[in-house]
Design brief:
This protein is mainly alpha-helical. It contains three helices and no strands.
Amino acid sequence: MGMYEDTDTAVGAAGRSLWEEEPARRRRMPDPVRDAAVRAVLIVAVTLTGATVTFFLTLTGSWLALPMGIGAIAGTVVATWGVLDVLITRQMWNQRYGVVSVPSSTARDRRRERRRANREARAEAAGGADRIRRSGAGPGARPAVWPPPGADRRYQASSGRG
């Protein structure tokens, strides 16, 4: 057995194996975003290679510099599209599947406590009276904003005109 065998302990190393799993630092990208990122990296790599070849062809005065220059410009446009595709795909994924807009239980409990305290403060300020007053309940009952339908002469029974 050599020093680099895949066993629990390595020969020559103090209790350390060759293969150690470490937890990932970040979560894995979703598949559509990763596909767009790989596509963008390949397009940018080809574009940079074409731009470098164009630069050297221009220095040497070759006739291929003009077609390669046009190709480099087109490649720049396509590479820009590829990078924007990554950003748009990532944003779309986050909007569809990523963020769950549910408040945490801590925020919910705090809001519940605040509402309860406000309700108690209002009840103490009103002297324990009910918030919703029934019509005709108590001496300070306000009249209704809209009169009942029977009070309007337009809605009374017909007077025989016909």
